[in-house]
Amino acid sequence: MQATLKTNVTFNGTGLHSGQPVRMTVQPASANFGIWFKRIDVIGKDALVPARWDAVEQTALCTRIVNSAGVSVGTIEHVMAALAGCGIHNALIEIDSSEVPIMDGSSADFVRAFLRAGLVKQDAPVRAIRVLKPISVTRGDARAELIPDRDMQMEFHIDFEDAAIGQQTKGITLSNGSFVRELSDSRTFCRQADVEAMQANGLALGGNPEENAVVFDGDKILSPGGLRHIDEPVRHKMLDAVGDLYLAGAPILGRYRGFRAGHSLTNELLRTLFADPDAWCFEDCAPDQAARLPGAGVHIGEIPAVA
User: Fold this and answer.
1) What domains are defined for the chain?
2) pTM check: above 0.90
3) Which candidate, 84, 203, 265, 281, has a CA 20 to 30 Å from the CA of 293?
4) Interacting residues of 125 by C-beta distance below 8 A, sequence separation 6+
């Protein structure tokens, strides 16, 4: 069955790119409501923004959604990944700024708070999106694809010049708490040269290698404490993809493959999928299928201790 939170959960933090303080409250919502953001600082225009693939405004550095009134919320991918990974299907997210707080740069703070608050089952079945045929998009040397599979699977490959990152590949079956155990604590990362360029352009103003990001410079890891996983960068890319794919509006039953893919390419993949009515269908999940969805059976003890 669908699920929502038992009670409100509030987060206070800083926007990664804006550097501004943010207060965000994730609230329970009724069955079939989906995930919506509400900008409580916006007056005189529609403040509700749907967390949906067709509301995404194309940006390279984060996922931003915008409504028809031009009201937007950015850097939503980590909280969306946490909602997907915890099996939360319905929520209203009130926020007093244009950007979700970055917290520690991963989804761990969101996951921990959601699982502590607890979930409640609702009187409606989980409706998943079944991939019926292969769909792919390519941009330069980056590629993303969805292919039919029994459950939600993910494979990702990254390739960076910096020796401390290099080439990394990982695959995972996203069921029974695997997101929480394997991906949720992996932090956003970047190269030192990119940090300098972003900040020169008024971005990444809230980024801090001591608090919410892993920064690499050639063969060096500049963040104190090093990595949480030897392959933390590819794990974080997968975390991002989990959040971006949840903008489909339902869990996806299929295999996602990303090769040097990012937010924009994953969104283009969803747009390509939904443009072809023969490539997908809705499917009410039977109990055995629902038991294999990303958030089924997850509990707080599965959050990595390092987080």
Assistant:
1) 3-121 (3.30.230.20), 127-302 (3.30.1700.10)
2) yes
3) 265
4) 1, 2, 284, 285, 290
> CA of 83: how far to CAs of 1, 27, 92, 244, in Å?
15, 12, 11, 11
Q: Is 229 annotated as a binding residue?
A: no
Which of 177-213 are b and which e, b meaning 16 or more Cβ less than 10 Å from the residue's Cβ?
bbbbbbbbbbbbbbbeeebeebeeeebbebbbbebbb
- How confident is the model over 118-138, as pLDDT tens digits? 999 999 999 999 999 999 999
Token pair belonging to 170 = 């990982």
Residue positions annotated with a catalytic role: 263
78 is in an annotated binding site: yes
User: Of 62, 61, 65, nearest to 53 (Cα)?
Assistant: 65
Among the listed residues 116, 124, 125, the one whose alpha carbon sits nearest the alpha carbon of residue 5: 116
pLDDT in tens, 260-296: 999 999 999 999 999 999 999 999 998 898 888 988 8
- Using CA atoms, how far apart are residues 142 and 140, in angstroms rounded to an integer? 6
236 is in an annotated binding site: yes
Q: Determine the 3-state secondary structure of 137 from DSSP.
A: strand
